[in-house]
TrEMBL record:
Gene3D superfamilies: Aldehyde Dehydrogenase, Chain A, domain 1, Aldehyde Dehydrogenase, Chain A, domain 2
UniProt record similarity statement: Belongs to the aldehyde dehydrogenase family.
Short name of any one Pfam family annotated for the protein: Aldedh
Domain (Aldehyde dehydrogenase): residue spans on this chain: 19-477
Protein name: NAD-dependent succinate-semialdehyde dehydrogenase
UniProt-listed NCBIfam families: SSADH
InterPro entries found in the cross-reference section: Ald_DH/histidinol_DH, Ald_DH_C, Ald_DH_CS_CYS, Ald_DH_CS_GLU, Ald_DH_N, Aldehyde_DH_dom, Aldehyde_DH_Superfamily, Succ_semiAld_DH
Domain of life assignment: Bacteria
Active site location: E255
Coiled-coil region(s): none
Keywords of this entry: Oxidoreductase
Amino acid sequence: MQLSDPQLYRQQAYINGNWTDAGAQSVIDVKNPATGESIGSIPNLGRVETVNAIASAEAAWPAWRAKTGKERGLILRRWYDLVMTHIDDLAMIITLENGKPLEEARGEVLYAASFLDWFSEEARRHYGDVIPQTKGDQRLFAIRQPVGVCGAIIAWNFPCTLVTRKVAPALAAGCTVVLRPASQTPLSALALAELAERAGVPAGVFNVITGDARAIGAELTANETVRKITFTGSTPIGRLLMQQAAPTVKRLSLELGGNAPFIVFEDADVEKAVDALMVSKFRNAGQTCVCANRVFVHDSVYEEFARRVTEKVLDMKVGNGLESDVSIGPLIDEAGVEKVSELVEDAIGKGARLLAGGKRHALGGGFYEPTVLADVGQDMDVASEEIFGPVVTLFRFESEDDVIERANSVETGLAGYFFSRDASRVWRVAEALEVGIVGVNTGMFSNEVGPFGGVKQSGFGREGSRYGLDDFSDLKYICLGDVN
Ligand code: NAP
């Protein structure tokens, strides 16, 4: 591996401005999912070190919150500039630890950087309100104040983005953060911490702790100093963190699993819908929370849609993300491949028609063939479970009412997509889908300006956008009396 700035390849935790492995009884190996080879290690830290990191964040908070929004924004801006300067190194680190193709990893760094850019500006626009009084001698105000020390826990599928999407708004709002990255992809978060330090983020304001998920999670949720938990990951772990945070009544933002419907109506532009599905489905080898999970296609365009998707899927090149022309990398680990295999076998066993792929790739390891399944039914596991792999499942439908009912028949509600050229239907369906994000005639909606988040068991809270600061601030009402 060649980084133009080898200093970005950090393999220690970052606590109170120090790179440290003090307290580690062991290390956790970080592996390249494309080769299975070790690419480094991180200290396996636990409860005591988490307590220390929280104490650092608490000590750093008064000075950080006392800065003006503009001052905090300028530091975030410098961090953004440094991320952009080191985009190639950061992309390389993402590909090495996550497996996604290098070009896609570059796209992720741009996306991650956009949150630093956006919140560097939003920091100075964190407005409150002047409220018209109900008594003549009173004046009423609502002001925004930072919630305090935040604990952040993130998944491995967007190793850079999940950091900045949480840390940028938290810091902009005047909070301090203790972040625990996923064990499989800690190196991107540590590289970002190195750049944060260079940008002038003061010691203790942003801490990265690596190690034992349960011990660190238990302390972050139980510790009274931590006033907020922001989590991106699976719904089961989200539920657990919610329970653990209940005794201290912490604020929570939960970005959890999805099971996105992707609906192609009879009046859709089929070609555009196929292209959009490829974008939505195969990013990160199908391991995104907003991935099209259930593709519902109207009976009248079903076979055409299936044929076109299959042609494109058979054209995809699977391989190590560092090689050129590779469009799809490996899954993150053996458990991921196992889960995808089981879902595909279950569907085929219950009568699904295999149009492409359907098994582990000849490259072995974490590689799975991009797969298309037709004639998928509601009785198959893929109808209710998040696939998290490169598998297109084609369901057939005949009426709008029926497809909306089926689209909404799952516990989660993160994203939904549909394709139609009927303006009334566009509004009707966009309003009817029980999700937090709707893509209409597009397979890609993620950016820093739109509010990202779910409903139902996909969680709550919104990241990015002008609403993003709200999750990291408390609203305080001030009633000023005796005004003559
Ligand atoms: P996961 O098992 O919930 O893990 C997510 C993070 O939580 C990891 O850092 C993990 O640590 C940590 N963790 C595990 N057990 C914990 C515990 N007891 N206490 C505290 N932390 C704990 O999720 P995953 O399967 O790796 O990630 C994929 C899931 O994330 C999918 O469901 C996907 O939809 C969801 N996701 C949602 C969004 C969104 O914005 N809504 C975005 C991306 C992903 P280890 O790494 O050590 O296991």
